[in-house]
DNA sequence: CCTTCTCGGATACCGGCACTATCCAAACAC
DNA sequence: GTGTTTGGATAGTGCCGGTATCCGAGAAGG
């Protein structure tokens, strides 16, 4: 498969594929001679993942590169590979520690982790980007007078735990080690648009039920 | 409260506030004379909402303007106002109708709405941006060999319905009509980062439980 | 063999977006 | 009355995802 074929099969322009190659999101093809390179199904699969991350998951190109570098790092075991890939994902700003909303949010999040029994997450809290993102988001809600406390969040936490179990089950069903980690990354990123859309649809449905359509 | 005070109390630079005024995200202050304008707590509240939408919710400025214009439109009843505001939110690309993954996704989504009993959502499907977003996201997952069918999505749909009920309860508890709609918009937008962070944390926790930390 | 087309890589460029810096004249502060 | 501050207008900045152009090396056709 040459670059033009890869482009046609994926629906991505050759210019954009070249850009991804430059940026290291896609490994280079096997060089046949000075003007031709050969790509295989692995390249196609990776290209589809890249497009899904960037277009559907809205992951910045630089972040996608980091994440995929971890996915490809054969020197790491699966757990570390997955952890490293997931930790490279978020890029939220540092919370402003002077803000009382942040302090309150942090306390509630810690209480939430205790209620859920997520002891590992609690231990890793100072390091985890996901934990930081949660604090930032809850702080923003509290600033807007949304009284989001641990009790309110606990059911959502339990649901997300259930989702995570399914993610990992799905991951284990994949054949190769690289595919396993790819699958978990895709689940982490692409699940969000689905949930968001379901949430909005549910709001529309419930609003129509309560107040009518007119 | 003058512009400089508004800036200090909100932590947003005067230059940025001026930008939001220009862009129509923030109503102009009451002009006192040629060089001074007076802002009130309503402006502060709106400014915090704008910042939350843009920074935490990652809503583009142009989209936020549209959404807020609907929120402020007194000529509409609550239902329509809320609906218009929510429908202005997403800006996903049109799905490629030639793609078989899109056709499959559309069929599964329709089946899902039937299973959930969301009849209104089903009727509004051709119009609803949320429905379109869902089709796009599910199609992306299917292209990556994630077998997301209606049975798999149904529990998440039910949960999101529960979340939507809470959103609307919270909305009804607000005092003014504008605050009610603002509250629903904030819930639609700011809930996402919280869920995403909980999802990632749950993945970390479950991964650590299954495979250990190291 | 010679022409013409196509290939892939390197480089420069583009458009959108969220701000930001500068300038200005009016008006307060002392 | 003089220096500082105010808010509005305008132009500019930095980043980011992607695109257009140019190039010399081969492949394709006669």
Automatic annotation (TrEMBL), chains A, B:
UniProt xrefs under InterPro entries: DNA-bd_dom_put_sf, MerR-type_HTH_dom, MerR_fam
Record key words, sorted: DNA-binding
Lineage, uppermost ranks: Bacteria, Bacillati, Actinomycetota, Actinomycetes, Kitasatosporales
UniProt name for this protein: MerR family transcriptional regulator
Native source organism of the sequence: Streptomyces griseicoloratus
Domain of life: Bacteria
UniProt GO MF annotations: DNA binding; DNA-binding transcription factor activity
Positions of the HTH merR-type domain: 1-70
One matching Pfam family: MerR_1
Stored Gene3D superfamilies: 1.10.1660.10
């Amino acid at each position: 498969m040459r670059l033009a074929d890869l482009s046609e099969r994926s629906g991505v322009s050759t210019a954009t594929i070249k850009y991804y190659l430059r940026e290291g999101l896609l490994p280079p093809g096997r060089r046949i001679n000075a003007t031709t390179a050969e790509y295989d199904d692995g390249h196609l699969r990776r290209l589809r993942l890249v497009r899904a991350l960037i277009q559907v998951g809205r992951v910045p190109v630089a972040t996608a590169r980091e994440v995929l570098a971890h996915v490809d790092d054969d020197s790491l075991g699966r757990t570390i590979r997955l952890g490293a890939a997931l930790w490279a994902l978020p890029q939220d700003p540092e919370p402003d520690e002077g803000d009382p909303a942040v302090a309150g949010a942090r306390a509630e999040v810690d209480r939430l982790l205790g209620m859920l029994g997520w002891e590992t997450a609690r231990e890793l809290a100072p390091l985890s980007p996901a934990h930081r993102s949660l604090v930032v988001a809850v702080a923003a809600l509290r600033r807007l007078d949304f009284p989001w406390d641990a009790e309110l969040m606990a059911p959502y936490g339990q649901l997300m735990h259930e989702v995570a179990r399914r993610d990992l089950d799905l991951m284990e069903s994949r054949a190769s080690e690289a595919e396993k980690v790819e699958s978990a990354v895709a689940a982490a990123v692409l699940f969000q648009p689905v949930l968001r859309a379901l949430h909005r649809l549910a709001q529309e449905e419930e609003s129509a039920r309560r107040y009518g359509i007119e």
